[in-house]
Amino acid sequence: MSNALGRIERATPPLTALAVAVVAVSTSAILVRYSSAPSIVKAFYRVLFTTLLLAPLAAARHREAFGRLTNRDWLVAGAGGVALAVHFASWFESLEFTSVAASVTIVQSQVLFVAVGASWLLAEHVTRRTLAGMALALVGIAVLSVGDSITGAVSGPAPLYGNALALVGAVCAAGYVLAGRSLRQRIPLIPYVIVVYSVCTVVLFALTLADGAALVDYPASEWLLFLGMAVGPGIFGHTVLNWALAHLESSVVSVSLLGEPIGSALLALVLLGEVPSVITVVGGAVILLGITVTARS
Fold first, then answer.
1. Is residue 103 a contact partner of residue 160, using CB atoms and an 8 Å limit?
2. Helices 110-121, 128-151: crossing angle, 10 deg rounding
3. Is 273 left (phi over 0), alpha (psi -120 to 50) or beta?
4. Alpha-carbon distance 243 to 17, whole Å?
5. How far is residue 83's CA from residue 117's CA, in Å, rounded to a whole number?
6. In angstroms, what is the C-alpha Rg of the chain?
7. How many CB atoms lie within 10 A of CB 181?
8. How many C-beta atoms lie closer than 10 Å to residue 163's C-beta?
């Protein structure tokens, strides 16, 4: 298994892997919408199944890496896992209240919060171009979030609330990225995500119990959707994206991720019949432009 995976990695062009990953993550919101289970349950099983699918690979190729983790490594990775759990919980819930296009676009604004956090926590320099991109994206978020409420366009049962949840998801995703920055320079990808996903799974399990949502007694179609979320967006999406970061410039990967909102919106149009409002399209375009400027700077 280890040798076969190594051959696959060597034979796969990084840009091809990146394209597959962007398509895979674009299916996430659609799979979430297809499922009728509570949002917190969907989030829990997505991360649980992703962890279980990656565990054999971690045991086969990276068992010794876990022994090299320091107490600080466990603490930082754990913090990243908590942030990731809140990200999934808030973003999955946002899809219940606002459009796919709006939710996915806003949650991609995590790039902005990574820039802010890196400036505060890691003393990284923020250029004027970065600030301009952030300001542009925030204007887009305001237009997208408030515009539909003012114009009366239908984009969900409570678009303002759903957009706010997506923004919480973006902030928490940035916390997850910042927590992992220093660790990923020293720790291989698979051991790192196993630790983070395991903590994330435990937190989501606790939130599911606190919510009183049922953990079992779902039809076979729901279990297939849970598994699909893990295999598609989880394995072929985010895990492959992290692999691509070792072979491509981070700016290329960051800008490529802007394909997710576009892909998700197109899939929502075709599969869910969800036509984004003019405000959503305009606000989303401004957000993506701002993210592009921020990522490239």
1. no
2. 140
3. left
4. 9
5. 14
6. 19
7. 16
8. 30
Q: What are phi and psi of 42, to 5 degrees?
A: -60, -45
* CB-CB contact of 76 with 182 (8 Å): yes
The tokens for 97 are 């209240």
Hey, what amino acid is at 135?
Answer: A
Rounded distance between C-alpha atoms, residue 244 and residue 44, angstroms: 26
Q: To 10 degrees, the CA torsion angle through 245, 249, 253, 255?
A: 160
Task: Write out pLDDT tens, residues 153-188.
Answer: 556 678 889 989 999 999 998 888 888 776 777 788
Q: Which pLDDT tens digit goes with each residue over 31-84?
A: 999 999 999 999 999 999 999 999 998 888 888 888 888 888 899 899 999 999
Cα–Cα dist 228/220, whole Å: 12
Cβ atoms 291, 111 nearer than 8 A: yes
